[in-house]
Amino acid sequence: MSLCCIEEISATGCKKDIWPPNIESYFIGLMEEEVKKGNRQTTTLTRDAWRRIKEEMKIQFGKEYTYDQFKNKFNQLRGKLKDFNNLLKMETGLGYNSATGKIIATDDEWKKLCEKYKFAKQFKKKGCLNYEKLCVIYGDTTATGANQHPSTKSPSSSNDDDSEGDFDKDEDDQQPKKKAHVSKDTRKRNARENAQVAFANAMAIFGEHTKKKMERMDKSQVGPSTNSTEAVGQSSEQDMEKIVTCLRVLEGLEGIDGASFSKALKLLKEDAMWRTLFMELSDDRKNDFVLNLV
To answer: 286 and 278 in contact (C-beta within 8 Å)?
Structure first.
């Protein structure tokens, strides 16, 4: 059997996993790059984008992936993102760790979640890796709530998922033949806007869960000395330290204009929840956060 054949069979006759975590992450990264270049006009990427991804995957891993395998993985990842977003939105009391992509919950909470939502089990150990990248790739193309599958069911998480989705439809097939040509600059601008919307949605979900978590922590810490002068003084000192830390990080970011810097500083000074959220972000996402403040 050729080493380049992706349908590899083990010595026991079982098919090997053709999408191990490192290959899946690399594939997701390539798709994100194409979206940021403006090569997603509708619900999928352009033919040229898929061709480049195919070539890069072969160069990187020495494997000849087929377009059907890309299609299946593309649809499976989209279903996974729908499930994860729905879980966060339907269970607003959960915490979320952006560094690991995992939901923060106790064993008892996970037991209840898995009983309530059959699709929740897949996120218990691994979370949703590359969550922010998936938000950029799929943007607003992932329906949630009533527009997607029932909460107790889930699209197949198999790598051999056979759903058609919109993968095979190139932009030429989805648009009227007489439609005016869309310039490359316009595609890039649209891609940037889609990425910003996706990031804003992810931030909104994360912010909501962080706020809930902080409210629970505040309630648990209420005691007889909470209103004392000493407690208030300690709280003020801690807030100031966090503000100064945020300020130093903010000053270290590149490409931030004065107006955006001022807006971010004002928000971080006034809102403890946003200070916590800001420090959890990667440097690239900190830049996105600051530059997209309204």
So the answer is: yes
The Cα 196–Cα 167 span in angstroms is 23
Q: Residue 202 is encoded by which pair of tokens?
A: 């992810």
pLDDT tens figures, 67-115: 999 999 999 999 999 999 888 888 877 788 888 888 888 889 899 989 9
pLDDT at 86: 87
Position 152 confidence tier, pLDDT thresholds 50, 70, 90: very low
3-state secondary structure the chain: CCCCECCCECCCCCECCCCCHHHHHHHHHHHHHHHHCCCECCCCECHHHHHHHHHHHHHHHCCECCHHHHHHHHHHHHHHHHHHHHHHHHCCCCEEECCCCEEECCHHHHHHHHHHCHHHHHHCCCCCCCHHHHHHHHHHHCCCHHHCCCCCCCCCCCCCCCCCCCCCCCHHHHCCCCCCCCCHHHHHHHHHHHHHHHHHHHHHHHHHHHHHHHHHHHHHCCCCCCCCHHHHHHHHHHHHHHHHHHHHHHHHCCCCCHHHHHHHHHHHHHCHHHHHHHHHCCHHHHHHHHHCCC
Beta-bridge mates of residue 95: 104
At residue 204 the predicted structure's pLDDT band, cuts being 50, 70 and 90, is low
Instruction: Give the pLDDT band of residue 157 (cuts 50, 70, 90).
Output: very low
Q: How far is CA 25 from CA 5, 77, 95, 98, 202, in A?
A: 20, 11, 24, 16, 19
pTM for the whole structure? 0.51
